[in-house]
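Batch 3, record 17
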Amino acid sequence: MPKKVISGNYAAAYATKHARVEVVAAYPITPQTSIIEKIAEFIANGEVENLEYVPVESEHSAMAACIGASATGARTFTATSAQGLALMHEMLHWAAGARLPVVMVDVNRAMAPPWSVWDDQTDSLAQRDTGWLQFYAENNQEVYDGVLMAFKIGEHEKVNLPVMIIESAFILSHTYDVVDMLEQEEVDEFLPPRKPLYSLTDFDNPFSIGALGTPADYYEFRYKIAKAMEEAKKIIKEVGKEFGEKFGRDYSQMIELYKTDDADIVFMGMGSLMGTVKEAVDILRSEGYKVGAAKVRWFRPFPREELYELAKSVQGIAVLDRNFSFGQEGILFNEAKGILYNTDAKPIMKNYIVGLGGRDLTVNDVRKIANNMKKIIEKGELDKEIDWYHLKR
Amino acid sequence: MAESPFKADIEKVQKEYGEKMTPGAIVYIPGSSVVNKTGGWRVFMPKFDKDKCIRCFMCYTLCPEPAIYLDEESYPVFDYDYCKGCGICANECPTKAIEMVRETK
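Prediction for the assembled complex:
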């Protein structure tokens, strides 16, 4: 298999090429730009066939064009970040409601003001209720694998929903790392051409999309999406397992567990910061700490059952949120705590707000968090529930 | 009154569509919105004076619904199942053969 040293953004671009994407509509924004530049380069060099690239005037238009393209049955891709994703918001609901499996890479970037181009998960998490599946990549390899799996999962006849693959600004998007890519034949076998639910080019069977749903019908259409999301959990596991069996990288777990078997304290989080956390787990274990890491790969649909299984076996969970919901708490913490409320699993849970706007989370930070958690568990009570860990005092 | 050109569609929709819910709210039967009779939205209704009509087809051409058909002699026929009473026909009629009157039920 061809290994290349590439950035997370190029990993995404190569994945779209190997997935034989037919339509890309996108608008440039830092730090997403090099994804769509690379795709434009593929076209300019004649490296891809049958790819229509639509340069649009805004992200709202980009998503609208993707919706139109996807409704013709085309395999459709776009990418954006932060303000661009926020501008797409209305159309995100549209893609999911019309059951169109558009795949998008969102490069996590902090929302302005103040202006920032650095890593922060609040942009994508603010889109959590739009009906998109969300996958958070830890490294460039997961960006590549994630995009390929996203098409297979989103286009599955039982799912038919759009998928967002999320990577960190600069930490992944512009940092070069080894990516083990697949041969074109391998991808073709794993990911056959899309079989759309419906196609606007089916002139023999005309239909309309964007119909009115009166109070007598709308409710049932929402239930259908809820059911498809629930179904998507099974499909994610199936596709993740198939990927592992074929290519050696298993994605059958929606929460990746790292050394949690005998752990008392587990660090839970999403995205690239979990790479640092795993490194820290190895170091802390060599120092005698009984710690592990739980990386939430899929935030939507949320792996409720996997979280419960983990929570049953540990004393404390430190939820590391590189995001914040003003007036409440870290978003992953909020969800995880809520899921466990109606279960018998009641580990001590504490929320650490870390890394907002690209601030580094270091191994030493994780050690400090481990010490804090240890104290809390010994005492049996929280010092505080939400800890703005990095705050300058 | 001339028969609605949508009659066949209405029957087909009522027979085949029924309570069927398609993912994405896709409507597979063309013209199926005719099952929703929108005439009930009307406040003013067009009243037609055949004697003044010169059969210029302005009302027939400009009705946005369209809820105006032509009979065998090419006089307009108003379909009150769908006429929302917008008054465009009355406004455009060059001989004032159409008058909008408040509907009392």
